[in-house]
Write a structure and sequence with these properties.
Elements (H helix, E strand, L loop, with lengths): L7 E9 L11 E3 L2 H4 L7 E8 L6 H18 L6 E6 L7 E6 L5 E8 L4 H5 L31 E7 L3 E8 L6 H19 L45 E7 L1 H15 L7 H17 L6 E9 L17 E9 H6 L2 H13 L3 H13 L14 E5 L17 E4 L8 E6 L7 E7 L1 H7 L3 H4 L8 H8 L2
Parallel strand pairs: 6-7, 10-12, 12-14
Antiparallel strand pairs: 1-6, 2-5, 3-8, 3-13, 4-5, 7-8, 9-15, 10-11, 14-15
């Protein structure tokens, strides 16, 4: 068992600046409505676990990551800026928040996790995710404090383990969503590979930085009816949670999807993720043993890039997400079958069209508000992240990652974070956060147990990642 006390110590912190001035970088970047809505939300904190490259020293790994991060910041210039709160009117009646793009830089932390190995990070089947995971991510207090001008928007941490390394990123959610987070992570890895091979750095997917604004409301910036961040930044500390990873194989999900579509009798319209969301909604609601007349909601994070007409570039670097929801009573959810619940989720996704997105933005411009953990009802289940994100394609040149993991930021009872399964081919991993008594009941739920799959064994991960 790994130590329970603090085990991660900082070896050195590097200040990393863009490799050179990007002539396309403006001095200020205005935030879109989707960005502004995330100002009160915690940093995105995700990372990847690797075995040690056999032919590289730790110093060589750090230097390659550092120099390649300099190049990445040239292309992704907002990442090295700072948030600034600007008073818009005399007397401080309103303000706006912008990104200053003067290239202040980011931090790269080199850390050591004493006595912790790959197996400890992965956690054995049936074990909670370890508490020390949050220490593998940089400056966890970034998810708690915000002063509007001094915190870096991005911090990276490379942690030495007993038999591997962990690369964790903390990225301000007001700047990017999950799609852009993994776009940056993959681009950084691509630059490392280019430099290792002695090739010119030409990104296969260069970012698009122009923010999307809806017409009819004048020019940006978006003005907020506040004079300082303290009036609109809310931080919430959730109660102690149990967090566990659950694996769903391709075969299991094919069966689940077929079951949902067969039961709803609407044709093959329900997606795998909609069927899986409905399963988790039903099983967690049952585990909570809520009153039958209680309302319960399933919320799905959904991106807008492909739904807008014309669509945004897939390389749009920023936030382009909303949350869609469907609500019913506990009795209706549990008395009906999986297909009935999956159809509700399907309808909420199908209704998120170009016109629906524009209506949401129009409403937001009339009444700006901010997402925080109070936004989510205590009886809800929230599906975040996506198994479509290219996490395991993030190749730094030393083999496939063994696992993707997250920190404690933005976690609450009922939060589910979706990852692609390590073996790919349509498999999915879910990171589930619940109160202890609910997690215990979920792991005994027959409907849930009929679908969840055994995790990939460590020896298989180690064998395949080196190929």
């Amino acid at each position: 068992m790994p130590p329970t006390s603090t085990t991660v110590r900082t070896i050195k912190t590097y200040a990393v600046n863009p490799a050179r001035l990007n002539p396309q970088a403006p001095r200020q970047l205005h935030l879109s409505s989707w960005d502004v809505a995330m100002l009160s939300f915690g940093y995105i904190q995700k990372g990847l676990l690797f075995t040690y490259p056999p032919d590289l020293s730790v110093d060589q790994i750090i230097e390659r990551l550092r120099s390649s991060l300099e190049e990445a910041l040239y292309h992704f210039y907002p990442a090295s800026g700072r948030l600034r709160v600007v008073t818009c009117e005399e007397g401080g009646a309103t303000c706006h928040v912008e990104v200053g793009c003067e290239g202040e830089g980011v931090e790269l932390v080199h850390a050591m996790a004493d006595g912790i190995g790959i197996a400890d990070v992965l956690a054995a089947d049936g074990q909670d995710l370890p508490e020390f995971l949050k220490e593998l991510f940089p400056i966890d207090h970034l998810a708690v404090n915000f002063d509007g001008c001094t915190n870096p928007l991005l911090v990276a941490q490379v942690t030495e383990l007993a038999d591997g390394i962990f690369i964790g990123l903390a990225f301000n959610h007001a700047i990017i969503d999950g799609t852009s987070f993994w776009h940056f992570f993959n681009a950084w890895a691509e630059i490392v590979r280019c430099k290792q091979a002695g090739k010119e750095v030409v990104l296969s997917q260069p970012p698009m930085h122009d923010r999307w604004f809806i017409g009819g409301y004048g020019e940006p910036p978006i003005r907020l009816p506040y004079s300082s961040p303290s009036e609109f930044i809310v931080r919430v500390s959730p109660p102690p949670l149990k967090e566990r990873m659950f694996h769903f194989s391709r075969e299991s999900l094919i069966t689940l999807k077929a079951k949902a579509n067969g039961e709803c009798e609407k044709g093959s319209t329900i997606s795998t993720l909609q069927a899986l969301s409905a399963l988790m909604w039903r099983c967690i609601t049952r585990a909570r043993n809520l009153p039958l007349e209680q309302n319960t909601t399933c919320l799905l994070a959904i991106q807008n890039r492909t739904r807008l007409q014309p669509p945004l570039s897939p390389n749009y670097f920023g936030n382009s997400i909303n949350v869609v929801s469907t609500t019913t009573t506990v009795q209706e959810l549990l008395d009906n079958n999986l297909g009935w619940a999956a159809w509700l989720a399907h309808q909420s996704v199908s209704n998120h069209t170009d016109s629906a997105i524009r209506d949401l933005v129009h409403d937001y411009m009339k009444n700006p508000h901010f997402i925080n953990l109070h936004t989510f009802d205590i009886h809800s289940v929230v599906m975040s992240s996506s198994p479509r994100f290219d996490m395991y394609g993030c190749n730094f040149g030393w083999g496939k990652a063994l696992a993707a993991r997250s920190s404690s930021s933005n976690k609450f009872d009922g939060n589910i974070t979706a990852y692609p399964g390590w073996e790919g081919d349509g498999s999915v991993d879910l990171e589930v956060s619940l109160l202890a008594e609910y997690m215990s009941e979920l792991e005994k739920d027959e409907e849930f147990l009929a679908v969840v799959s055994p995790p990939i064994k460590l020896e298989v991960l180690l064998g395949m990642s080196s190929m």
